[in-house]
Amino acid sequence: MKEQIYTNYRLQLPTEEVLGTLVVRGGVIADIQPERTESGQNGEGQYLLPGLVELHTDNLERCISPRPGIRWPLAAAVTYHDRDLAAAGITTVCDAIAIGDLTPAESLRKTNYDPMIQAVHNRQQAGSLLIDHRLHLRCELGYESVAEIVSQYVNHPDLALISLMDHTPGQRQFTKLDKFREYYMGKHGVSESELDDFIQGRVQAQAEHAINNRKALVNMANVHSLAMASHDDATVEHVQQAAAEGANISEFPTTLTAAKAAKECGLQVLMGAPNLVLGGSHSGNVSAMDLVKLDLVDLISSDYVPHSLLQSVFVMAAMTGQPVYETMKPVTINGAIAIQLERDRGSLEVGKRADLLTVRYDLNSDLDGQVPQLTQVIRGGCRVA
């Protein structure tokens, strides 16, 4: 049985940091010891963390359409996406695939969801991907056919999470219409008059379809025991509705009020790593760091910048004074718990899969400009980056 020994590493265990040795046999963590050994790979005091668990990334869409109007070959885009995430230290990912997109222009989200889902699944089955890919279906409630489409995937072997989204202007993420206009005019290049028509259409679509779609999707999630997230909660009522429906995640709450309510209702609160790294929300919503300091954040997602996920661990440690073994939990074990994978990943424990990261970083140096240096990414005992 193949054995690997990692010694003289700062092991980030579930409740403590230990300068010691971790042994891998057959792709599984076989032993953890609080001392150095003479044999094995000498980490020279680097951090050794579990592989990162990512619940929501739009990176696949970026790889398929790196610029407006560009469509990259799908097989190549899936490969680029997989390598991007491996290089960022992510060993388990829920690829966020949007079902329904009421935007001013034609979108990948209306036509490409099935090719994207199948391309990732087929390449994973063929063994050509470096990390473990799961499926996160982002469901736009105002899109007429969303529940019908999602029903086709409820038994898909990769499906781990669905999220309920409502991007209607004036609600949730875009309570401020000026921010909505700024975002869509900048991203899609539409005129102000076109956007007025678009806003009217979005409001009408929500009124016609959102309630029935939500009921159908909630029922599917409960019947099939799927993890479910409520997206962009802004009010106590949003959170209470999600909790009553069986959601376990409040994904990107936009206000302090909603984040507090989510914690009180027992939902895991998910915030974006870019928000943490940049010090605020691009949509003008609540600061992730403010919520971290109030102990209101359970999960962190890289959203649209894969490398921000690891960086967020060290940003939180530097800004709060908490040890890394605590600040890593939102990107490791808590994510595994959210999608029911905690039995075999998410923490450095004997018997769990050897998904490991080695990282060089000095928490005592100035924060400004400091970026963690990822030196190895190991999945199931095999180095992938």
Task: Give a short synopsis of this structure.
With 385 residues, the protein is of the alpha/beta class. Helices cover 36% and strands 24% of the residues.
Can you describe what's shown?
The protein has 385 residues and is α/β, with parallel strands linked by helices. It has a single domain (51-345), classed as TIM Barrel, CATH 3.20.20.140. It is 36% helix and 24% strand. The protein has 14 helices and 16 strands. Strands 1, 2, 3, 4, 5, 14, 15 and 16 form an 8-stranded mixed beta sheet that branches. Strands 6-7-8-9-10-11-12-13 form an 8-stranded parallel beta sheet. This is Phosphonate metabolism protein PhnM. Pfam families: Amidohydro_1. One of its GO terms (biological process) is organic phosphonate catabolic process. One of its GO terms (molecular function) is hydrolase activity, acting on carbon-nitrogen (but not peptide) bonds.
CATH architecture: Alpha-Beta Barrel
Number of strands: 16
Helix content percent band: 25-40%
CATH top level? Alpha Beta
Hey, roughly how much beta strand do the residues contain? 15-25%
- What gap, in angstroms, lies between the N and C termini? 23 Å
User: H/E series, N to C?
Assistant: EEEEEEHHEHHEHEHHEHEHEHHEHHHEEE
The name CATH uses for the topology is TIM Barrel
What is the CATH superfamily classification? Metal-dependent hydrolases
Count the DSSP helices. 14
Q: What average pLDDT do the residues reach?
A: 91
* CA-atom Rg in angstroms: 21 Å
Oligomeric composition of the shown chains: single chain
Largest sheet: 8 strands, mixed
Number of domains: 1
Helix/sheet category = alpha/beta
Shape: globular
Uncertain segments of ≥5 residues (pLDDT<50)?
A: none
